[in-house]
Amino acid sequence: MMTPEMGLALAILGIAAFLFVTEWLRVDVVALCVVIALMASGLLTTEEALAGFSSTAVLSIAALFVVGGAVFQTGLAAILGDWILKLAGTSETRLLLVLMTAIALMSAFISSTGVVALMLPAVMSISNRANLPASRLLMPLAFSSLIGGALTLIGTPPNIIVSDVLVNAGYAPFQFFSFTPVGGLLLVAGVAFMYLLGRRLLPDRRPKHTVQQMETPAELFELYRLPDDLFRLRVHRESNLIGTTIETLRLREDFNVNIINISRNGRAIHHPTSSTALEDNDVILVQGKGNAVGKAAAYWNLGILANQPIQEGDIITNEVGIAEVLLRPRSNLIDKTIAECRFGSTYDLTVLNLHRPSVSEPLDIKTTPLKFGDVLLVQGEWKNIFALKRLRHDFIVMGEPEAAQIGAFSRRSHARTAMVILALMVLAIMFNLASLTLASMTAAVALVLTGCLKINEAYESIDWKSLVLIAGLLPMSTVLVKVGLVEVFSTGLIQMLGQMGTPVILAGLFLLTGLFTQLLSNTVTALLVAPIALSAAQSLNVDPHAFLMAVAIAASMAFMSPVASPVNTLVMTSGNYRFSDYARVGAPLFVITFIITILVLPLLFPF
Distance from the CA of 3 to the CA of which of 179, 187, 298, 469 falls in 20 to 30 A? Predict the structure, then answer.
């Protein structure tokens, strides 16, 4: 019998599901609205509604985001990616086999979205080199990353969510490699399917418009003839500038000369501020015309180190570099000069060149008002360069994939440390030396303390939208149980399929989850279906582990729609895919994963 509380809970759930599908609001905003609605309606107390924000699942996933961020920040992921591509070669068959296997293994430990984003530019490059349409490679890349999430406990959030459901119900959680037997079979089957049948279903389609590749930082270095305009100035031992600040020099204001960095005792101070004090024997790397630099050196009695030619590595490393930035039509910088914008102090970057496509003669950086379409060549730390991406109203930052290929953002000297910490975390979880929450949080803190990741970078690596989504929808699961809807759904499922046997109910749960995950995110799907699976198992008086693992695995098998998973969306444009391509290749792959899962789970977790 439907009660008013059930009706109210269903209304909130229905509206939330509608907003998730239509994407009229961001998913995290919808989740917060669900929390507010549950409190305001009285269906849950304030403590119950906010309990998701202290959930061990949420804390574990947050810590794992930090671990994944460190794997990328230290270049460990890029190192693995380079190794994969060297092993894969240029044969389509070999590329499929090696790429799918390696990407799945990486996705077992790192975010599948991060893995695909990392490998996408490299695979596009190989596609061009091997004269293979990208459409032959990118969909297998995305699908293998989804299968990889079913290999370990930390492979994807739904695995952690269903394990947490088990713990909260008083059952033993899944272990680190509990998913591996099924996930391993799914990977073998997925690779075999793509090799035998899938590649015949993949479109052989080249982009209608060739995507223009941006210049690499090294090419920009030569294109703008930077070696001709870069000089080293030394502060003499007896100079009266020792102890004074950069502001005193007024190099930009009086001589139109930019300071790039200061070398001091073997280390570089990138983008020194106006308050940076000069010391004996400092070497200042500056950019400007030769006569202007000569005048500045003579005025301040600075030595010009003419015998030390400027190399690309002097201004392009994995920490600092150069990039082109395009001004948008309604940018706040339009009609202002670089000085009026206080560009250097505002963005912690130096403008080395100003180019206007319609003007052939050089423009004066100091006095030229900026216009829409102007291209600024900026230099500074990569994190500051690509922080401009967030200012979408003002800038278009070009060349991020090209910069990533040289290890921009990464601290490769810390890659070994990150690998050791990641391995220790996995071992601690695998041998039950620590819970998932304790091991992942310890690893996250260790990565920050060892310098693999700065604390602000750790916060930036967390996908806060996903965390708020999970924390906001956990109370939805609570209210469905509290008002009796989970029992109603599970009873209906048992009445519909129970006479056919427990394996059929397991199959029904897989198909239900698989349908939802093509429309909703895998996280939302797991949060909604997991309580139903648990209740169904308890009603049948059987072990719930098989039911909940079926839910977790099905939630990741989002093959049939480009919007079913971020990785599918990521490859759609680059692969020139159509909506129907995903259904044609993904539907048979989903059927294969369904059959394998339903056959294997009862053997691993007997009812």
Answer: 469
